[in-house]
Amino acid sequence: MTARASVAAVIFDLDGVLVDAEPVHRVASRRLVAPHVLTDDEYAMFIGTSIGAFAEWLRERYALGESREAIVARYDALVAAELATQLLPAFDGAHELLAALRTRGLSLGVASQSLPRWVELTLASAGLAGAFDVVVAADAVTRAKPAPDIYLHAAALLGAPAERCLAVEDSIPGVASAVAAGMRVVQTQQADTAVARQPSVLATVATLRAFDLDWLDGAQRAF
To answer: For every residue of the chain, which 3-state class applies, written as one string?
Structure first.
């Protein structure tokens, strides 16, 4: 066990961590490519990555006769329409965990690879609007996850050194992004899109209720 400074800020991914919005994105993705068929395995390849990369793959995979920017715009509209009509509650334990972290005086942030209005609509649907000091979406950085940029940007906005931040992630690119930023990472496996435990994470949790507040004390322990 190696001692490290105590955690000053906790930064959450959004989809798959605080809210299960992936079904919405999956439906929108299939509507985007119809009448072509997008399989679950194909969709899963892009969970946690940038919409630009997904759009470029769709353009090439289905020989879509439009630009990547046009595909992104159509996808944006489809996802926003789905989010506006569906109730997406926060995952079990999310509100309680955020309250407990606030009680400890920690800064809280969101670092999501989703587009800004998706993030806004999702947080509002889950009753989490205003729950965070900083909300960073895909437009804030040039390089998407697994590059560390979005986590480093969120940490800078929170005024916390990356090494004193703990990230809560679910996807392979997301975990890699936070680890590359120098953060401790708790990997949640609460969503039905959960992946196997990733290297270098501090711990995995089946639900946010299993988050151990002792992980904030600076001990670099693995579970």
So the answer is: CEECCCCCEEEECCECCCECCHHHHHHHHHHHHCCCCCCHHHHHCCCCCCHHHHHHHHHHHCCCCCCHHHHHHHHHHHHHHHHHHCCCCECCCHHHHHHHHHHCCCEEEEECCCCHHHHHHHHHHCCCCCCCCEEECHHHCCCCCCCCHHHHHHHHHHCCCHHHEEEEECCHHHHHHHHHCCCEEEEECCCCCCCCCCCCCCEEECCHHHCCHHHHHCEECCC
